[in-house]
UniProtKB/TrEMBL annotation:
Residues 6-90 form the Core-binding (CB) domain. This is Tyrosine-type recombinase/integrase. It comes from the Bacteria. The keyword DNA-binding applies. The lineage of its organism: Bacteria, Bacillati, Bacillota, Bacilli, Bacillales. PANTHER family: PHAGE INTEGRASE-RELATED, PROPHAGE INTEGRASE INTD-RELATED. It comes from Cohnella zeiphila. InterPro entries: CB (IPR044068), DNA_brk_join_enz (IPR011010), Integrase-like_cat_sf (IPR013762), Integrase_catalytic (IPR002104), Integrase_recombinase_N (IPR010998), Integrase_SAM-like_N (IPR004107), Tyrosine_recombinase_XerCD (IPR050090). One of its GO terms (biological process) is DNA recombination. Residues 112-289 form the Tyr recombinase domain.
Length: 289
């Protein structure tokens, strides 16, 4: 196949013969060819060539289908067909691998709606956190809450924050060693995080000085996800209702939805792969009916 996809029809004919050798029904073969033709058209419009397609491109393809209102079961069928096509194309030397292999299939079961905090619950949580007597824990825990309530980070992302993540008016989120996205910080959240960094620096412990991570415990130079969860869930009894880290992230996303922020921007800020996930936060809002 040529780089410009000019050999699309020849490629489809070869793939069709492969399917026939697999003893597929004629109706199934027609469906496979139609799905692959649709995908190759998307590739052409995106300005990419088949060997250049990566998993992120497949996620974009899936997202475009979701935005177009295609049913989840139909999207799953398309992804399955495209994965079969790439497996064949890779074996034939037309593709560098199978980028569709690990693309998550959409769950067609109706998921439970996300739980977010009301304004009153949010205020109560912050007040209780501010009552902590230990200055080290108070500053750290309030900073933790701000990264999830007002920057929408996942618990793993909070644990993986570096000191260098804290910029002048934004928070740089890492996935592994690579920066994944930048999230704006309000002046209040920025001040809360900087207060934590100041107190942490004044503590002067060797493990604090050496640690590149933003959040630490009193005994360790890194705060693991379970330790973050322990802090947040520990407020449940005093609050009188259960609170989890994901509730704080959901609260952030819901707040943006209530502010009428475009769904694509919320998806980008939250680092969500699918607009279907983001769309849940618009439930019951008149401007998203």
């Amino acid at each position: 196949m040529t780089e410009s996809l000019e050999g699309t029809e020849d490629l489809l004919i070869s793939f069709e013969r492969f399917l026939a050798r697999q003893c597929k029904e004629e109706s199934t073969i027609r469906m496979y060819i139609a799905e692959v033709r649709k995908f190759l058209g998307w590739v052409r419009r995106s300005g990419r060539t088949l060997p250049e397609i990566r998993m992120d491109d497949l996620l974009s393809f899936r997202g475009d289908l979701e935005k177009a209102g295609v049913r989840s079961a139909t999207i799953n069928k398309s992804l399955s067909v495209v994965s079969t096509f790439f497996k064949w194309a890779h074996a034939q030397g037309h593709a560098s691998g199978n980028p569709a292999e690990h693309v998550r299939i959409i769950d067609t079961q109706k998921a439970a709606p996300p739980r977010w905090l009301s304004a009153e619950e949010e205020e109560k949580l912050l007040k209780i956190a501010a009552m902590e007597q230990n200055p080290f824990k108070r500053a750290r825990n309030l900073a933790l809450l701000h990264t999830m309530l007002y920057a929408g980070l996942r618990v793993e992302e909070v644990s993986d924050l570096r000191l260098e993540s804290l910029r002048e008016n934004e928070l740089l989120v890492f996935h592994g060693e690579e920066p994944a996205r930048a999230v704006p910080l309000s002046p209040e959240s920025s001040a809360q995080l900087r207060e934590w960094v100041r107190l942490r620096g004044e503590a002067g412990k060797t493990e604090y000085v050496r640690s590149p991570y933003l959040f630490i415990t009193e005994r360790m130079g890194a705060m693991q996800p379970r330790a973050v969860q322990f802090v947040v869930e520990g407020y449940s009894e005093k609050l009188g209702f259960p609170v989890l880290c994901q509730h704080l992230r959901h609260t952030y996303c819901r707040r943006l939805a209530e502010q009428d922020m475009p769904i694509e921007r919320i998806q980008r800020l939250a680092g969500q792969k699918s607009p279907t996930t983001t769309r849940r936060y618009f439930q019951g809002l008149d401007h998203f009916s």
